[in-house]
Amino acid sequence: MELKPKNYIILFILFFAILIGIQGYQLYNTYRLKQREIFADIKKNLDRLEDSDSIFDNNLLSKDIARDYYIKLVKKEITAEGLKNLYKTHAQKTSAELTKYVDSIFRPLGMHIILRQEILGIYYKDAATPLVDGPITVYTTKGTFHNPTELSSSKWLTEKTETNRTQDSIQSREILYVFSVPRKTFFEVVNLNWILFKELTSLLLSTLLILAAFIWLFYRTINNLRKQKKQIAVLHDVVDNISHELKTPIATLKIAARTLQKSPDNTIVAVIERQVSRLEQTLDPLNESQNATSLSPTTAKELQAIFSDFQLCNPTIKLIVEPSLNLPICLNPIDTATLFSNLMNNAVKYGATQLNIRFEEQKDYLSIQVKDNGQGMEESELPYIFEKFYRIQKDNIHDTKGLGIGLFLVRNIVKKYAGKISVISKLQQGTTFVVLLPR
């Protein structure tokens, strides 16, 4: 079953959507893979960074100092807010140094990394409620986090035994302080999207190129199919018109042949000659490569004969030729007759009752204007009227009979003599053809 063009377009959209989905899925997987590779490389470097005691212990709160402050918190020698402010102060003091150190590792790799460690809470012994609620920033680099990624998660367990003596030193007791401190470390790649974009540029461009090529090929295919369909329709129409044009002379020749069988008659012979000539004139335009039998320029007398024959066949048409016909025309008589006959007959076919033909000498050209008062043409038709077999249609029905090659022949003649042709037309306002021929 043959599909309609609409169905082809629907199928294309469906397959194109599937192709976009496949390409998008591949891009997404590649994006995630590259992201994991970048994160793995960052974690490797940051894991090495965490092993440096000189930065994370000496310059920040060391574990022993931190534990002593936790004990003071239990003894209520400091408050929870006081401990948080202490951490905040240490984090601010070390932020610049830590930022510089992290940048020295990742800037050469083209990465901008920000880092932060937080305490989620400080728990005393097995208590379910923390002494201090988190999060509490232990250290951080400069920068604002928007989409942090977890680097590591751990729990620090520390304990210390203290001997508590009374004033008379007679009685003493030992107290065990046990603290549980869960911590998490986060990082973020500030320029992650730019890094991934650079990594995926070639893949993205190739994907877009494939999609663009797919659309272009589909467009060309549909366009060629439409042209072929149009050409087939035109050929069918041409065959129908040729059949119509040949019926009358063939019927006349049959009658003449039967008459000659009965009795010879010179009048019948003349009829046969005219009908044969008519058949030749009908078929001649189908041959593009017609050669002129005469290379001599058209004379004023020959040009006048062309207009006289047209007026004889179309007595109701008002033909105005100006000025005189003494201007030299470089066309040979056959090409001249073909050019003017097609332009004038075309005007008559499309409703013209008056034709104005004007000759005007210009510097390097002879200008010939053929103006009519016919029904005119839509602007959308003008780019196609000089194509072979093209005929103006209305509601997909041809209003006039013909082969649709008259203007095609006119254009070829003008082109052969290195001239130019243009057309101005509006519906219900007539049409003007302007031919410029080298002098």
UniProtKB/TrEMBL annotation:
GO molecular function: phosphoprotein phosphatase activity; phosphorelay sensor kinase activity
Top EC class, one word: transferase
Coiled coil region boundaries: none
Bilayer topology annotation: Multi-pass membrane protein
Alphabetized UniProt keyword annotations: Cell membrane, Kinase, Membrane, Phosphoprotein, Transferase, Transmembrane, Transmembrane helix
UniProt keyword Phosphoprotein, yes or no: yes
Domain Histidine kinase: 241-439
Substrates-to-products reaction catalysed: ATP + protein L-histidine = ADP + protein N-phospho-L-histidine
UniProt-listed InterPro entries: BphY/WalK/GraS-like, HATPase_C_sf, HATPase_dom, His_kinase_dom, HisK_dim/P_dom, HisK_dim/P_sf, Sig_transdc_His_kin-like_C
Provenance organism: Sphingobacterium athyrii
GO CC entries: plasma membrane
E.C. no: 2.7.13.3
Example GO biological process: cellular response to phosphate starvation
Protein name listed in UniProt: histidine kinase
Transmembrane segments: 200-219
UniProt cross-references to SUPFAM superfamilies, sorted A to Z: ATPase domain of HSP90 chaperone/DNA topoisomerase II/histidine kinase, Homodimeric domain of signal transducing histidine kinase
Entry's localization field: Cell membrane
